[in-house]
Amino acid sequence: MKNAETFKKSVSKINFRLLPLYIIFAAAMIVFLIKLVNIQITGADYYRSASSVTHTRRIVTEPVRGEIFDRNGVPLVTNEYSQALMLDYDALPSRPSEKNAAIAKLSRILQKNGCDINTVMPALGTYPHVAYDDEAMKDPYVRNRFTRFLKRYGLDTEITCIELYETLFGRLDLLDDGGEHIYDSNTEDMIIRVLYTLDVYDFAPDNPFVLVSEADLKLITEILEANCRGAYVKKLFKRVYHYPEAASNIIGRVGKIPSEKMDLYLAKGYSYDATVGLDGVEAAFEDILRGEEGVTVITEDEYGNITDSRTEKEAVPGKNVYLTIDIELQQTALASLEAQIKRIVDEAVRSGEPDSGEKADSGALSVVSLKGEVLALATYPTYDITRLGENYAEYAADPRKPLFDRSLFGNYQPGSTFKIATSVAGIESGTITPDTVIDDKGKYTFYEDYQPSCWYVRGHGKLNLEEAIGKSCNYYFFEVGRLTGIDTMNRYCSALGLGRHTGIELPETEGVLAGPEYAATVGDVWVPGDTLQAAIGQSKNAFSPLQLSCCVSTVLNGGSRYKATILYKTCNYSGSDEQKNNPVIIDGIDISEQTVAAVKRGMKNSKEWTSDTKNYKFDVGTKTGTAQTTKTNNNAVLVAFAPYDNPEYTIACVIENGAKGGNAARPVFDVISHIYGLDADGRPNK
Ligand SMILES: [Zn+2]
User: Fold this and answer.
1) Is 318 in the same domain as 336?
2) Which of 107, 120, 294, 117 lies closest to 213 in space, CA to CA?
3) Strands 320-323 and 68-69, sheet pairing
4) With contact defined as beta carbons under 8 Å apart, do 298 and 309 qualify?
5) How far does the centroid of ligand 1 lie from the alpha carbon of residue 474, in Å?
């Protein structure tokens, strides 16, 4: 018998986008079905005089699942089809001798076609030369299923393989009345293996068995023409991932309905063995991708001959989903994060300075349009979604946590990037104006018992708002925070989306907006000094890169907060009935043009701050943040928007243990260069 793997290589696979081929295939199938029904109806005539008892059963046909593309139509996840040969519980005779005959007939055709049935009995050889497969039995799952089988048959767990076979011959009706073998040893062996497999897989009316997962047309034709009772053909699809690493955190997987969600899906009309989205985009857009199941009603006479087959309901294919993601941009972001992390570590090691970034190991970057469209959600390190099953233990044990999506779930202290929000709250609440000058004396001495200093301990002297943002003066924002007050400040921060869901269709962190409200939930008491820390983005403030991008977008939009979205458009498989996903404003405050202009000027000045940023020639706004962590190295944070004059995109980047905000600049500029076709220094590509 040929190995199943070898067989699979010769199997024809039908790509849905090759629609003409698919139609030819479908037409061929219809011809065979008509032929089949004719054979069966003709055959049935013989019996009809004796009996008119009929039995109908419904076979559910899975709809074609929609495919997933990026915003430019680049395929991210597509389908690969195969025809599977299935065994239906209700259609298989229940009387043991008839059941054996049906399996024997099937297995002969399968053997003739050189393909294995997917059996799992842990035994090698054929009777009387049989032995347990010790290698397979090492797997506790195999061992447990085997033990359960023995218990069901009331057999001793110490039974030898030969004794087991000899017992089963009698128990499974494989001997005639005189005690002689009915079938040859090969057929008998196959019957035992199939019955064992059906038993351990809990073969039932709602749990059909996949005999051959990829069957070719010749095999299917033979099986159908031979009228093998119990066998039917089902179209199966397999997801093909075109960017298994770059988009692993976004795409998600499909699989059988998880038991805890079974009731929910059944109520929606799904069948027990339906394939559904388990996580990521596959789960988020399940209703769009799914389509509708079809139903075929099969009528059989009392001998199991098919006398009629009609389509009660055609399956409706699911719609294709186009994401707002630009997969090339996503790849650029990932590659740049990886390269920058290596650069930070190399530089830190070379300098020999402790806590200067030698522990940088991971990061995330998000790119969002001002209207909330998410163009990139990169998280590094990543993993290969197609190898998640086999490599899960390795991924889970990796201290860099590749399975953790930092772009959506990372709760990062924003550091000085938060000063953007403090500025908006200060001006819009009427506490300060963009021209308010505050004299930074280094140490902030308003409170007797708590006197923090500016990071520039000698003090920046007299500053207005844009200078304070540009120089990231802590003293200035201590004063703005205190004068505004935490409650007013947080009313604005919340309206900017900080500490709130962005509205993206994927699961994400809500973040933490530090304040009395949050303090109370964790049993802390809020003191005035906490307000000073919160105003410069410290305290308990923690947000995801996506939230930070969306916050900057809201400021630049003059206070209109757009729902973050990853859905660009949907359309059916032929490309018609296109439906764009329009931007939605979910919240809003008024931010005056002067406020926006002042913040923008501050962010322009901020660009001059580090060597990595100031040499970039393209006009952008940035704000760095260096976030204290409980670890030794600080996190590097940077938010940016581009272009400066007419902002289109906001970007946020975090590098864990990246030591200083400027270290997060390179990946941000790399994605801006990618979007606008610039070189690494922000000059137009020649
Ligand atoms: Zn200062």
Assistant:
1) no
2) 117
3) parallel
4) yes
5) 5
- Enumerate residues 6+ apart whose C-beta is below 8 A from 4: 115, 116, 118
Residue finishing a domain among 290, 323, 356: 323
Cα–Cα dist 472/465, whole Å: 10
At 297, which amino acid appears? Answer: V
* Strongest mean pLDDT among 232-236, 628-632, 633-637: 633-637
Task: Look up tokens 């389908």; give the residue.
Answer: 79
Q: Any idea what the CATH number is for the domain that residue 338 is in? A: 3.40.710.10
pLDDT band at residue 647 using 50, 70 and 90 as cut-offs: very high
Q: How far is the CA of 656 from the CAs of 136, 345, 350, 443, 482, in angstroms?
A: 44, 11, 19, 29, 30
Task: Measure 625 CA to ligand 1 centroid, in angstroms.
Answer: 14
pLDDT tens figures, 186-227 = 899 999 999 998 888 888 877 788 888 888 888 988 888 888
pLDDT at 339: 98
**The pair of three-digit structure tokens given for residue 407, joined into one six-digit string:** 């772009």
**Would you state the structure tokens that stand for residue 244, as one six-digit string?**
């298994």
- Give 305's pLDDT tier (boundaries 50, 70, 90): low
Q: Which two tokens stand for residue 682?
A: 């922000």
What's the gap in Å between 650 CA and the centre of ligand 1?
26
* Residue in this structure with the two tokens 């001006």, named with its chain if needed: 427
Same domain, yes or no: 584 and 491: yes
Tokens of 384: 């290969």
CB 594 within 8 A of CB 466: no
Instruction: Give me the domain span that covers residue 40.
Output: 4-120+201-323
CA–centroid distance, residue 456 to ligand 1 (Å): 6
Report how far ligand 1's centroid is from the alpha carbon of 438 (Å): 10
Tell me how far the alpha carbon of residue 207 lies from the centroid of ligand 1, in angstroms: 69
Distance 606 CA to ligand 1 centre (A): 13
The percent of residues in the chain predicted with pLDDT above 70, rounded, is 90
Q: Could you tell me if 654 and 642 are in contact, meaning their C-beta atoms sit under 8 angstroms apart?
A: no
Contact 16, 64 (CB under 8 A): yes
DSSP helix/strand/coil, 95: coil
DSSP letters, 552-572, are: HHHHHTTSEEEPPB-EEEEE-
Site of tokens 């959600």: 377
Q: Which residue in the block uniquely carries the two structure tokens 């046909």?
A: 61
Tell me the one-letter amino acid at 677.
Answer: G
> Is 28 among the domain residues?
yes
pLDDT tens for residues 137-182? 988 888 888 999 999 889 998 999 999 999 999 999 999 988 899 9
479 Cα: distance to centroid of ligand 1 (angstroms) = 11
299: its two tokens = 């009528």
Rounded CA-CA distance 511/407 in Å is: 12
Angle at 63 between CA 62 and CA 66, to 5 degrees: 135
Going from the Cα of 544 to the center of ligand 1, the distance in angstroms, rounded, reads: 27
474 within 8 A of 411, measured Cβ to Cβ: no
By three-state DSSP, how is residue 578 classified?
coil
Confidence (pLDDT) at 506: 97
CA–centroid distance, 624 to ligand 1, in Å, is 15
In one letter, which amino acid is 506? L
Domain identity same for 396 and 286: no
Domain boundary among 269, 289, 323: 323
CB 344 within 8 A of CB 658: yes
Query: Across the strands, what pairs with 656?
Result: 362
